[in-house]
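pasting for ref
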Amino acid sequence: MVSVGVVGEPVNQAYDVISTLALILNLLVSVLNTFDSLNLRFGGIFSLTEKITVAIFAIDYFLRLITAPLEYPKFKGVRAGLRYVFSLMGIIDLLSFLPFYLPVFFPTGTAVFRMFRVARILRLFRINAYYDSLNVIIEVIASKSSQLGASIFVIAVLMLASSLCMYSLEHEAQPEVFENAFSGIWWATSTLLTVGYGDIYPITTAGKVVGIFLSFLGVGVVAIPTGIISAGFVEQYSRLKRLGDYAEEMNISFIRIEIGEDDIWNGKRIKDLGLPHNTIIAVIIRGKQTIIPKGETVIQPQDAIIIGSEATKGHEHIELKEIVLKENHPWNNKAISDIDISRKSVIIMIRRNDRTIIPKGKLVLKKNDTVYIYHSGETESK
């Protein structure tokens, strides 16, 4: 019920609507409460709305804590709960309601606790599950995280160096403005990031020269992260386009398999399966939820997995036939070893009453069995 984005389940849809409305109402009240005139007239309604919505956040948190073993199947019991508690969304969920109740126990910290309530707005990221376009942005940022980290490091180094330099040049001329290194950092931030508040600025000739140099440098430095993210979007678009072209030209084939309780894939991550390089897991269907798999995705019992493989290249022609044995079929009640089939044909699987059977020579085929036969042959004449 608390899983976000599951379609087709009325209970889940109702819970999603209630959670989203509670979040929107809470944020709306937080904004309207800052207007004194509205607070005087509707302060009681604002207070009641906040109490109700925060209570919903608290209930949501404890429901997610209880169901953590389902969210993190690799962990059991308390470990799964701790995995959720210390996750990013777990911390956001906790901060969305806990600061509201803390002033009851710690009255002196009311102002600080109210500041932490801003974390509620981060719950909006849960709505991300409904919009694939938002996931593209997250994927681009994640794929370029190392480059973005390096650019931020360069910006931080330049800010520190320029702040110390400006403090040394301007402290004697205007000690009340550049009174310490932090004043220099504030000036460097507004200059390098092209904000330009104008509350702190150099008055000495040397300081102005350094300021001009850093202003030009700031334009280029700030453009670096923008260029990295733009390149990431271009690469993402090109990758999707190549996949589309590849699918049209190579005619990828897909099959669906269902994971049972005793399946060897059960509980394993996608990246640990050791699939061939030309085979992909395209989609995982888990109940009513459709999951785009990633390397860390864990396969669970009852998952339906859609596996794709590129078409065979070259001269070899491969066929996979499905034969349902009716009442008068000659293979009924015969062992596989006694069946006369082509030497290029192999029985690879048998389905019997929703069970999958690995064929052996002594296995006797029965009525209504579904037999899957692999056949390979040469398309060229000899």
